[in-house]
Amino acid sequence: MATINVIWYAGASCSGCSVSVLNSVSPDIKEILLAELVPGKSINLLFQPTVMAAGGELAAKILEDAPKTPGYVLIMEGALPKGEISEGFCKLVPDCMAVIALGSCAAFGNIPKASPNPSGSVSVGDCFRENKIEKPLINIPGCPPHPDWFAGTVFHILYKGIPELDSLNRPKLFYGGLIHENCERRPYFDKGKFAKKFTDEGCLFELGCKGPYTNADCSIRSWNNKTNWCIQNGHPCIGCTEPEFPDVLSPLYEPLKLKK
Amino acid sequence: MKKLKIDPITRIEGHLRLDLDVDNGKIVRANAGGPMFRGIEMILKGRHPLDATRITQRICGVCPTSHSMASARCLDDALGLSDKIPPNGILIRNLLLGCNFIQSHVLHFYHLAAMDYVRLRSGVEAGVLKEEWGPFFPQHKADYKPGKEETLHLLQDYIKALDIRRQAHELLAIFGGKMPHQMGIVAGGVTMKPSADKIADFHFRLLRIKDFIENSYIPDVLLVAGCYPEYWKIGASAGEFLSYGALDGLFAAGIVKEGKIENLNTKEITESVKHSRFKDGENKHPSEGETEPQPEKEGAYSWVKSPRYNGLSCEVGPLARLMVNYLSRNPAVIGDIEKFLKDSGAKAENLNSVLGRHAARAFETLLVVREMEKWILALEPGGEAAVDYKIPADGEGVGLTEAPRGALGHWIKIKDSIIENYQCVVPTTWNASPRDESEQPGPIEKALEGCPVADTDNPVEPLRVVRSFDPCLACAVHLIGRKGNSEKFRVL
User: Which of B12, B38, B137 sits opposite A12 (nearest CB)?
Assistant: First the structure.
C-alpha cells in the first residue's frame, strides 16, 4: 500500500480550518485518517498540532525528521507572520511534493494580513514569491474552507494528481463559478425584490451580499452536511474565499460597489 | 534543579510554550508564554462597527459563536438595543451559544485531552488504530492506567465523539447558517425567523446529542477520574474564580475570593503587561486599553496580557462557573450541582484540580443541553427575531458573556460612525496570563506549581494540567490595541 505522508503546519490561524475539516461527512474524518482514501493509498498525518498525540520535544522531532522522508504533502493553516513560524514553514518546503494553503489566511492573508497587518503576515503565495520558491501550490480559501473542498482536493491528488487550478491556484472544481450564479435567492435579485433588514424575504444584495463577486460553490453545495448555508440563513455572503476579503470587501454590510 | 521547556504544547488551540523549573521530580516554577500574535483589535480600528461581529469571530475557530455573541451584545449596548431584542432573537442566540458549548466541550475531552490518559497501543492491538500512524503515534510513555477493555471503550467513544461533535455543528447550522464562523448572530438579533420545521429538526437532533452526553461523556469522564484519583489533588489554581454569568441565569455572575462569593464589579478589572511583550504603562480597565507591541522587552515572555480583578489572578471557565453557581446557591442549578457531587463522588473541596475541571465541563454540558430543550420549545414560529437600528455617530458599549472556556468581554468605542477602539478580554487571557507586577503567577502557572514530573523526557503530568484548562491561545494572543491609529479602510 502506498502511503502519502502529510504534515499540517499552523501559523497565524484560529484553528477554524482544522475544525472545519473535522466536519467532513463523506469521507468522514476517521476515514480520511485511517482508511484507504483511494484504494491502495492512504494518508499518514504525521503532524497536526491540534489533534496529534505527541507534544513538546516528541512533536518537535517529527518536524526535524521530516526531510528524511521527502515527498510529503505540506498543509499550511494560517497566514505566515514575520519570525519563527515562517522560518519553520520555509524549512519544510524544500522536501515536500506540494503545498496546500488551506483556508483564506494561508491562501491570501485574510484577517491577520488585514490593514494595518500588525503581525506582518503574508500568504503562502507571497512567501513563495518573496523567497523565489517554486513548488506546486494549491490554494483552498474560505473562512473556513468547506470540508468537501479539502477532502475533494486531497482525494484528487491521490487519485489523479493535482486538480485543474484557476489563476489564483484554486481548484476550478470548487471555485469555478460565482455564488450568485446558482443562488437560491437569485430570482429575487432578477425581480428586484431586496431585503431591507435582517429576516426580510428577498435578495440580500442591499444588506451587503458579496455573492456576485465571490467564487465558490456554497450555493450548490450547502454547508454542515447540507443543513444550511449563509444566504439560506438570511445572512449576506461576505466573500470569504476571495483575496479581497476583508479589506476591499468592507464594510461587509454595505452594498457592493465594484470597480470595473 | 532542572530547566524543562515544553514547546509546542499540542492538542490545545493555538501556540503555547512552557518553561518549567523541576526540582526533585516536582515543578517549582512555571512560565507559560504565548509566542504569537495577530493583533485583531488593531485591525478593527477604523472599520464599520457591524463588521466587528464577523471579524471578532475569527479570533477563534473553536469558539467563534462566543465572540459573535459578545460582539453583538456589545453593539446592542452601543446602539441602544439591549432591551429591544425580540424573545426569538435572544432564544436563538442562546441556542447557538449552547451548540458551541456542546461542540467545544466534546472536542476538548475526547479529541484534545483523552489521549493523555489512554495507552493508544491497545487500540492497535484491538484493530482500531494503525501501527505507528499519525496523528495517534508517537505517544508519550506514561503511567496509562485504564485496562484493555476500558481503553477500547474510551477509544470507541473517541470515534463516536467525532460524529457527535460534527452533529453539534450541524445543529448550530440550523439557525447559524454554517460552522465554524456562523452567520446567524447580528446586532439587533439574528438573521432568520424560526419556523416549525426548523424547531422540530433542532429538537430531535438535540435529543440525540443529549443521549451521548448523558450516557457516554459524563460516564467516560468519571471512568478516567476513577483510574486517576490523584488528579483530584493535582493542578489547583490559586482558588480565585470569576464568571460574568450568561445564558439567562444558567450561569450566575460573581467572583470567588478565599472561598467566599462576592458580587462582580467589572470596573475592578485591569490589565498588566509587566511580563508581556508590550510597552509598559499604567494598568487600565480594558475599555481604556492602550498597548504597544514591544517584542524585545526585557523580562517579557508572552504575548498574553495579565488581566487581574482587584489585583487578583482569577481562573475562568467551567470550574469557575461551577464554583460561582455553587457558592452563590444559584437556584436555577443548585439542586443539580448537589446531585452531581453526590452521584459522581466528587468532593467540593477537590474540585479545584485537573479532574474537577473535566467534571465541571462535562456536567455543565448536560445543564446547557437541558436548557436548550426549553429554549427551542419556547420559540414563536414566524415571530420577529431582530430589530432594525441606525449606527450612531458616537457611542460606547460593552458585551459580556461566557464562552466555553470562560468569561468573555468585548468593549467598543464608536466615533464618527466607525470603530475608534475595540478591546476583548478573553478566557485564556485570564487563565494563561503571565506574572504581573507582584510576580503573582497566572492560573495555569499556579496550577503547575507542585505538579509531579516523573520523566522529563515524557512530561505528561504538566500536559494534563495545562490541557485541563482547555486553553485557546488564538483567543489569548490577539488582543492588542493601539491608540490614535484610526486609518480608514474604505477601498472601493
Answer: B38
